[in-house]
Each structure stands twice: as C-alpha cells, then as structure tokens.
Automatic annotation (TrEMBL):
The keyword Hydrolase applies. Its EC number is 3.1.-.-. This is Metallophosphoesterase family protein. One of its GO terms (molecular function) is hydrolase activity. Transmembrane segments: none annotated.
Length: 364
C-alpha cells in the first residue's frame, strides 16, 4: 500500500523550514517541463554524532519525501553515497534497506546513482583482509532492481546507467562507480571508495542513449563529476573519454572513442550523433561536498552540497560547509534541492534549502 507523503512524520523544525521553502518555490516551478527533488551524499549510519555523519542521513531522505509531496515534483533523485559504509556490513545493509524502503513507499518515481561509499569499503579498509566489503549484487538487488521495476520507471543498463524521458527532455544517470570487481586471494581488486570510473561498456551505453535522444535536450546526472573546474579529470578511469563523448553529442559528431587497452576499462566506443538536435543541459553531481558551477569546453558541471551533517569543527569538513556553520537540529543540518527545467524557456533553475544556495539559474 502506498504511503502518502503527508502521513510521513518528520522533525518539527524541518517541517516548518521545508513548508516555508515549498510555499516560496511552488509558484516558480509550476508548469516546468521537469521538476526533481534532489539530495546527495546522505552518508547514513547507525553511530550518532552531533558534528558529523549519523542516522540523520535517513531523516534527510524522509524529509525529502515529505517535501516532494508538497510540490509538483516529477521524480525524487539521490546522487549516491546513500550510506557512509563505515560500519559492519549487516548494519550498513540495514541502513541501505531503510532508505530504499522510503523511496519505494509511494508511486512517485525515483532514480538513484551509485556512490563510492555504497559498497561499504570504508569499513573494509580497516580490516587486513578487506572483509565487510559488499559484492556488486548488494547494490544491484537493493537499489538498481527496484528502480528498474517501477511502473513508468527508468531503463537501467547492465553497467548501472539509467535513462528516462520527460516531455522534450532525456535524463541520463551515470554510474561513476562502474568498477569491475574480483576477489584475488580473498581480497578485493579495487577499493571502490578510492576508485571512481566508468568502463568502455558503460560509455557505449551512454553513446547509444544519447543517439536515441533525437531532438531532446539531455540532463546528465552522476555521483561524481567527470571534470574539475581547472579541466583536470574527476574520475580515475575514462573521465576524459566521458567528457569528450558529451562534447561530441553537442557538436553532432560521429566516430570512435578510444578508451585505451586497460583490461577492465579499455576498448572502443562507437557513436553517431548526426541525427540528433538536442544538447547537454548540464552534468549534475555530488561527491565533493561543496556547491559549485563551472563549464569545461561548453559542458556545464553543477555540484550539489552534501546532505549529511558536516559540522564546522570536524577535520574532514570542506571549506564550503565550514562557512555554512552547520548545526544539528537546525535547517543548516541538511542540504537539498529542487531542480527545475523549463525547456521552452531553456532555463535550468536550482533552488536550495538548508546549507545550500537559495537560487541558481542558468540559460542553456
């Protein structure tokens, strides 16, 4: 039985704050082509902290759920690091399942990207045999499978890339933790917390999804950005190739993309965008625990702030969040967004609540 968002119990201060935010943003997004309720990096865990990550990551998901019920939201979005991955595997899996139960609780569709913390490798790093790391089936069965099973939900590929269309728009969500996993001598071949990348196989899926967009403009989403502001790569494997594929789509090119000869990430990607007429609107990401917008070769990268609490005095807190002076049980504790695209006006608007900029608008 579906759970109506109005029946969700959320904290009183959050209900007041998000209610005021909804009242303010509603007239600005009504009638848009696509409205997304978006959070990223909840880093949920059982161990409680008043200055850093804790079980409030799950509360932020519930609060996003409540907010989505107050607004004309088309999709709920989580851009990865649902869990912190720093506890024994049974605890992390429990936290992951709690979050997914919230996303599955009503008929509003959702799309979720895989983050580099979601395989519990942060916990496994503490163990000599790297024990406690999830096998790939854990995220696939608990997240990608229910995503794919939604009525009217997204297409989900073999490599964890997802696609859905909304009117004149196509939304493609990438898996920047597309890392081929093997256990060698009882130890995992890659630490996924420290390794970001996309395989040539996923880039071929992306090329096909872009070619199939036709006249639609395309929004790209992922946990991690492919590039940095300075033009350096944001992923360990195939970041430049991913970026160049998006450029090729904008320039309506055809050809082959060389991903090198690495046995896990190498190969050739064929693309043909000659029959398309849309463009890449933006590449939305999280991961860096900051808020930033920049363009590299005409591709707009937009970073969204971490939802999870990052207290000012914690050693790992980023400069952006230190300036926010985030405090538990206040609106600064969380950070989230409503992303609204008016394709007729060619306008991308990002409205933030909590530890986020109130309004960012971009023409495309």
């Amino acid at each position: 039985m579906a759970l109506h968002p109005r029946n969700i119990t959320i904290r009183r201060f959050a209900k007041r704050d998000l209610g005021a935010f909804a009242q303010w943003v509603r007239p600005q997004i009504t009638g848009a082509t696509l409205n997304l309720a978006l959070i990223t990096d909840t880093h949920d865990r059982t161990q409680f902290s008043r200055t850093f990550y804790g079980p409030n990551g799950f509360w932020h998901v519930q609060e996003q759920h409540w907010l989505a019920g107050e607004l004309p939201i088309d999709w709920r979005v989580h851009l990865g690091d649902l869990v912190d991955g720093s506890e024994p595997s049974f605890l992390t899996l429990w936290r992951l399942k709690n979050i997914m139960n919230d996303y599955k609780a009503d008929s509003l569709p959702f799309v979720i990207a895989k983050g580099n913390h979601d395989d519990n490798d942060k916990y496994a790093e503490k163990n000599r045999r790297f024990s406690g790391s999830f096998h790939p089936w854990v995220f696939n069965e608990n997240v990608f499978l229910p995503m794919k099973a939604q009525v009217g939900g997204p297409f989900v590929s073999l490599h964890g890339l997802s696609v859905f269309d909304q009117g004149t728009l196509r939304v493609i969500t990438l898996n920047t933790s597309d890392i081929p996993v093997r256990w060698v001598g009882g130890r995992k071949n890659y630490d996924l917390k420290k390794t970001l990348g996309v395989t040539a196989g996923q880039l071929q899926e992306l090329a096909d999804a872009l070619a199939g967009a036709g006249s639609r403009n395309v929004l790209i989403m992922a946990h991690a950005p492919a590039m940095t502001r300075s033009g350096k790569v944001g992923l360990r494997f195939n970041a430049r190739q991913l970026h160049e594929l998006l450029r090729a789509y904008n320039e309506k090119l055809s050809g082959r993309l060389n991903c090198g000869s690495d046995p896990d990430f190498g190969g050739q990607v064929r693309f043909d965008f000659a029959e398309t007429s849309g463009q890449v609107i933006a590449y939305l990401a999280g991961h860096w625990h900051t808020e930033e917008d920049f363009a590299v070769n005409g591709i707009h990268y937009s970073l969204q702030n971490v939802s999870a609490l990052m207290g000012r005095n914690h050693a790992l807190t980023t400069r952006f969040n230190r300036r926010q002076n985030r405090v538990i049980a206040t609106p600064s504790e969380y950070a989230g967004y409503v992303v609204s695209i008016d394709d007729q006006a060619r306008l991308l608007s990002i409205f933030g609540y909590g530890a986020a900029a109130k309004t960012r608008r971009f023409r495309y």
